[in-house]
Amino acid sequence: DGCGNTMNAASIVIHGSAGDVLGLSMRGGRILVRDNVGYRVGIHMKEYEAIKPVIVIGGTAQHFLGEYMAGGTLIVLGRRLGPDAVHPSRYIGTGMHGGAIYIRGRFDPDYLGKEVGAVDLSAEDRWLVEQHVAEYARAFDLGPADLLDRPFTKLVPLTSRPYGRLYAT
């Protein structure tokens, strides 16, 4: 639990699963997880100018993935999910106000936080995902083509101030 807390640079490669709050308040660097992750992964990740943290998850995540995310990139590959299986994570992106989450395969739109919308990938998004997936594949001696064989969906915040109406008049 808590691996990569306030991480600013470098890389962490996890040859297995990771626990809860992976990448808490992460500001830079990369975390690659071969298998699954626990709850609240990527909570309050943030970016500054060209410094953007990245987490690539080979399996699936538990609930509240990308909660209060302010920047950076989360990629969830769902490697062991069948083609018709749905990612189990609920409340994805709750409170999200920056960054992007890319999910390979199917997910239930009802599992998204109300602050998040799903969009198709642009050519630039596709290139970004391909670069990070290639790095993930190298780290775990896998074929990148097998990890790009299903469609990805990009999850983005609907506003940069999801709770502004609660604090401003």
Overall description:
The chain is α/β, with parallel strands linked by helices. The protein has a single domain (11-161), classed as Glutamate synthase, alpha subunit, C-terminal domain (Pectate Lyase C-like). It is 15% helix and 21% strand. The chain is built from three helices and seven strands. It has helices at 123-139, 144-147, 164-167, and strands at residues 11-14, 30-33, 54-57, 70-76, 98-104, 116-119, 152-157. It has a seven-stranded mixed sheet with strand order 1-2-3-4-5-7-6, with helices on one face. The radius of gyration is 15 Å and the shape is globular. The chain starts with 10 loop residues before the first strand and ends with a helix.
Write a concise synopsis of the structure shown.
This protein has 169 residues and is α/β, with parallel strands linked by helices. It is 15% helix and 21% strand.
Number of domains: 1
Count of runs of 4 or more consecutive helical residues: 3
- Find the structural class using helix and strand composition: alpha/beta
Low-confidence stretches: none
Terminal CA distance reads 39 Å
Largest sheet: 7 strands, mixed
Q: Kindly provide the radius of gyration, computed on alpha-carbon positions and rounded to a whole number of angstroms.
A: 15 Å
CATH class: Mainly Beta
CATH-level-2 architecture: 3 Solenoid
- CATH topology: the name is Pectate Lyase C-like
Strand content: 15-25%
Strand order of the biggest β-sheet:
1-2-3-4-5-7-6
* N to C succession of SSEs: EEEEEEHHEH
